[in-house]
């Protein structure tokens, strides 16, 4: 059974994470109750737009797919699935949250006492830029990743921290809370996205061009089994280990660890380029539209001034 479909031996709970599904459903229900029933209780509250609701539902489906569906257990078997998780959750879901959550709700969230200082950091764009990329790079240092993969609370905490930093990372370019005059200019927003990609490149390059496998939790049998405890119920894992059915990730795939590692780095880099291409297109379109609107406004004012001057001149002619 040297194929990925063999993960069914870990059971339903490990493959489909019903508890995480319940959490995602709970968050989704709270979102729609807030935006469709309770929105009048918020300053500036308004009815939910179809696009916002659809985007939020899509984000929740993606979140469950990455951390609840079999992709999660596969991320402990193959490094390439781990990097797929990283790219989708931190570089796709995080920025989409700014379009899925209405601006009045974002304003309420940002003004909460416990979060106000956190989001204040994003008013200096270099700080979230350095924080996210720095923590992301530290996370993928082999000794750090191997340790976190074998400690459930720390692993979960680190992923939550990275997601919060990803939200902070995209605040300077996508937030609809700050007054327009406090936003970066269109050109600086484009450069900011390029900077994110540039700072992610060293970590991806290290992973892609390493001459040997970097992570014990994807190569060493004991470390791998310890990491699998994060997503497989202990009773199931102990039973399989006792029967001698599994010894390491090689049971599920013929892909070599170095090839899997290189594939993971490439997936991260390619998905990043795709996601950022859409961001750049969106930012460039808005920048161009705003520039045209400003030009039209200047032209209108000039024509209005010329008309008033002409009328004044005619009065005294």
UniProtKB/TrEMBL annotation:
Keywords associated with the record: Cell membrane, Membrane, Transmembrane, Transmembrane helix
UniProt cross-references to InterPro entries, sorted A to Z: Caa3-assmbl_CtaG (IPR014108), Caa3_assmbl_CtaG-rel (IPR019108)
Predominant location: membrane
Stretches that traverse the bilayer: 12-34, 55-78, 84-106, 126-145, 157-174, 186-210, 266-285
Membrane-related topology note: Multi-pass membrane protein
Assigned GO CC terms: plasma membrane
Classification via Pfam families: Caa3_CtaG (PF09678)
The keyword Cell membrane is annotated on this UniProt entry: yes
NCBIfam families reported in the protein's UniProt record: caa3_CtaG (TIGR02737)
Protein's name according to its UniProt entry: Cytochrome c oxidase assembly factor CtaG
Protein's gene: ctaG
């Amino acid at each position: 059974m040297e194929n990925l479909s063999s993960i069914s031996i870990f059971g339903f709970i490990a493959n489909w994470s019903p508890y995480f599904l319940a959490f995602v459903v709970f968050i989704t229900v709270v979102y729609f109750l807030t935006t469709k029933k309770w929105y009048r209780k918020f300053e500036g509250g308004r009815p939910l737009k179809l696009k916002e609701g659809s985007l939020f539902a899509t984000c929740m489906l993606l979140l469950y797919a990455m951390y609840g569906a079999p992709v999660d257990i596969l991320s402990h078997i193959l490094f390439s699935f781990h990097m797929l998780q990283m790219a989708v959750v931190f570089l796709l879901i995080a920025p989409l949250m700014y379009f899925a959550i209405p601006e009045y709700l974002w304003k309420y969230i940002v003004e909460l006492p416990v979060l106000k200082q956190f989001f204040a950091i994003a008013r200096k764009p270099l700080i979230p830029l350095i924080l996210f990329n720095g923590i992301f790079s530290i996370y993928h240092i082999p000794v750090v990743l191997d340790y976190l993969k074998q400690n459930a609370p720390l692993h979960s905490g680190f992923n939550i921290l990275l997601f919060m930093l990803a939200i902070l990372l995209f605040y300077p370019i996508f937030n609809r809370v700050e007054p327009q005059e406090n936003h970066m200019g269109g050109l600086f927003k484009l450069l900011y996205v390029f900077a994110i990609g540039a700072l992610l490149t060293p970590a991806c390059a290290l992973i892609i061009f390493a001459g040997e496998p970097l992570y014990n939790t994807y190569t060493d049998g004991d470390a791998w089994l310890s990491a699998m405890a994060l997503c497989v119920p202990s009773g199931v894992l102990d039973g399989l280990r006792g029967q001698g059915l599994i010894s390491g990730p090689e049971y599920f795939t013929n892909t070599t660890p170095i090839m899997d590692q290189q594939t993971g780095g490439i997936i991260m880099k390619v998905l990043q380029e795709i996601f950022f291409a859409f961001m750049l297109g969106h930012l460039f379109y808005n920048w161009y539209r705003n520039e045209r609107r400003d030009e039209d406004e200047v032209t209108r004012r000039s024509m209005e001034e010329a008309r008033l001057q002409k009328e004044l001149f005619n009065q005294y002619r």
